[in-house]
């Protein structure tokens, strides 16, 4: 037997550089990942994590730099080369064929065409072995589109292992999972690591890094800024490395002082565009001076509930009361005039017109106000004056109200919406996913503004799929599952209890 250097790292990225036009996505990146370890890569949105891993997987070509796999310089110019080098990738958006079975998806595209005769039964037993070895149970004959996302993801992992992956890259794998599904995934990753596989886990969630990685590298604005052993760092240090300054991770707030009921929802039922009942007989109140949070996995009716309350979608039955007066079926303009503020879930579709300049977006929806218009025309000077005040107060960058909104980062776009809605001083603020795609620094800022609204005696209804966000901001938590409010809990309720409710398991 020839002596093999057992200490060779599974992955070495050397001087990787990548530009997309003017965007320098990866700047001279060096990274070493030890064999048989779970290595986390953390960084804010746009830091360059996915780009770097796409280069390792042969999806993008680096402008400069080289890759060594197990100590050998390896050219990875397409995904086939990556697979040959033993690299598998679980994508952020699954790449499975929806109407094919698990087994078909796993063997699809494997060289040697296992789709014929004996190949299939061999593949079936190979799949069984993989399932048993790694605790990855899934029915090989199930059709992909009928499986919950957690299981679809398991199929992606099986597919990579079936192709002989020794290195597994997972890009933001828990974004679509319930907490229980995420825990299960982490168990599986632990088993894979213990059997010698090397895992690269990309995430922007500090908690996940602390829970399962051995080492963690931090990216910021295209650069690799630090690598730490997970046991030798803290969430505070990692957050500071990600953002480049100290950040407050916990929202500081005193007890709530709820008073009069501002919003009442009574037996509300809402159907989506296809006529499917998404909100089923839901009732609750939100009082002045409190934050009511709605927890749930995406797609359990939260979006349709918010749309009905904010006048975007007409409910099929039930009632919505604002200060005790029925407003069911009122459109958004009418509700805004009554004192409803709305930070929509999807700022690109509903919150902003990206082609408009910043100042126009900073009054969008309120542009008929006397102070922004002369007759039917928008008074741009008045808008710009108003926008300048908000830019300063909300630290919107760059501080240029004439810049096209599309040229602001996600966090700053969100601040434009938050400033517009909060500065109107609404009696009720309805907030959907306020920090989705927003960097940690802006998250801290937005959270503080929401608590300030509450403390100023406003009613705040918050919907978020980030359980941490719900728990740290809410005074009361409602959990939605399959269109129903399945329970109400206090914010000190454990994550597991809430997680089970979100999965529809316990009420
Ligand atoms: N295909 C692409 N074309 C142009 N710009 C891109 C492309 N992919 C990523 N970028 C840009 O590169 C930067 C890094 O993006 P990405 O690697 O996706 O970051 P992360 O995964 O850390 O959120 C961002 O500014 C992003 O807009
Ligand atoms: Mg990414």
Which structural class matches the secondary elements?
alpha/beta
CATH C-level label of the largest domain: Alpha Beta
Query: What's the alpha carbon Rg, rounded to whole Å?
Result: 25 Å
Total separate domains: 2
Number of strands: 22
Residue share in helices?
25-40%
Q: Would you write up a description of this structure?
A:
This protein is of the alpha/beta class. It has two domains: 11-243, Rossmann fold (3-Layer(aba) Sandwich), CATH 3.40.50.300; 261-353 and 427-502, Rossmann fold. The chain is built from 17 helices and 22 strands. The protein has a six-stranded mixed sheet, sandwiched between helices. Helix 14 (410-423) packs parallel to helix 15 (440-455). Mean pLDDT is 90; it is low at 1-5. It binds adenosine-5'-diphosphate (ADP) and magnesium ion (MG).
Give the gist of this structure.
The chain has 507 residues and is of the alpha/beta class. 33% of the residues lie in helices and 25% in strands.
Question: Which features would summarize this protein structure in a list?
Answer:
single chain; 507 residues; alpha/beta; Rossmann fold; 2 domains; 6-stranded mixed sheet; 25% strand; globular; disordered N terminus; binds adenosine-5'-diphosphate; binds magnesium ion
